[in-house]
C-alpha cells in the first residue's frame, strides 16, 4: 500500500509594498474560468529550469471543479521499461510526454483549497503558485499569489487559549517587512532590524523572559504577536513556548514550531501500488479528506 497526502491552503495576494489581502470569494471559480479559456501553449510555463503544464477541469461523476498542475518531465530524464520477461527497453510514448500532476481542489466558501500531489514525483507549492500567477495574468503586476498553509485547528486553539507566550523566536526572509497591525515592541524591533538589514539579510529575532517569571502583560503581547505573524504567512520560521493553564493556578509550557505544524495539516489515504486512480477517484478521495479536515 502507498499513501497520498492532502494538504490545505488559502490564497493570499501579496503587493509589492509587502501588504497582503485575501482575494474575493469568487477567486477560484474565476481562476477556473480563465484557465479553461487558455490554449495549451498558454498553459505551458517554465519554472526553475523545469517545464510545467496545467488545466482546469470538472469531474465527470460529480461536478467537482479542480485545477491540475504538474511537471512535464524532460525526455532526458525519462525512466526505462521492463517487460514481463525481464527485458529492459527505452520508454516510448508515441510522441507524448510524462506528466506528473497535482490537483488543486477548491472547497467551501472561504477560498480554501485542498492540494494533492502525485504518488511519485513532487509538484511543489511554489511551482503551483508560480504557474497560477502566470496563467492568471499577475506576471507583469505588482501582485504575487501565495498559497498559505492552513493552521492545524488543534494548534490554533492552543495558541488562542494560551495564557501567554514565554518565548518567541522568528526568522523573516531577507527583504520582507513585518506589519502586525498592532502596537507592540515586537513590531518595533522588526521594523528597526529590517531598516538596518535592508534587502540583503535575513532577520532573526528572539524574545524571551529567560529565567524570570513571565510578566502577564508582556506574555500576552508575545502571544498576540505570534498569532499575527503565523497568520501573515510572511515568516520563514516561528518558534513559540506556549504557556497553557494547568487548572491548578499555574501553567505548563509547550514548544511549537508554528510554520512546520501549520504545514502538517495532512490527511492520508491508502492507494494500491499496482492500481491507477482515475480523476474521479482522486476527487472523491480528496473530498473525503476535506470532510475529515473540517471535522478536526
UniProtKB/TrEMBL annotation:
Q: Organism source for this protein?
A: Aeromicrobium tamlense
Q: What is the lineage of its organism?
A: Bacteria, Bacillati, Actinomycetota, Actinomycetes, Propionibacteriales
Spell out the protein name for this chain.
Answer: Uncharacterized protein
Q: Which domain of life is it from?
A: Bacteria
